[in-house]
Amino acid sequence: MTPMEILLAEDSPADAELIRGAFEENRFAVNLHHVMDGVEALDYLRRQTPYEQAARPDLLLLDLNMPRKDGREVLAEIKADETLKTLPVIVLTTSAAEADLEAAYNHHVNAFLTKPVDFDAFMDLIRQIGEFWLTAVRLPGRS
Fold first, then answer.
1. How many angstroms separate the CA atoms of 96 and 91, rounded?
2. Whose CA, among 2, 20, 89, 95, lies 20 to 30 Å from 125?
3. pLDDT category, 96, cuts 50, 70, 90?
4. E strands, 20-104, where?
């Protein structure tokens, strides 16, 4: 099975390592690519310098609260871009704000998940993401 290409846009190195560790612990076949902010995420998705050779992700895990360009702006740009709008996006954030939830779904996010503060619950959430998105869902460009 070809590993799923996942782009993680997350400004917290600790959260990024937890996510990477959870995918590895569950032995999900993924290539996890990490960027630290919204500008890098869009550069990666558009294969701009230094990401000219980047594989197109099958899935984007997107934090909302990032520097330079936040996840809300990134989501709006992705869904307005003809070449990116079909990319599945999961918002993975600390925000539980109703306004953030509504804004994300207004921009056609595929899922909005609030990061649990409890370690075991966080690891379980990543396991659930992997089980659903890597085994149950059929994604564009993947057979």
1. 11
2. 2
3. confident
4. 30-35, 59-62, 89-93
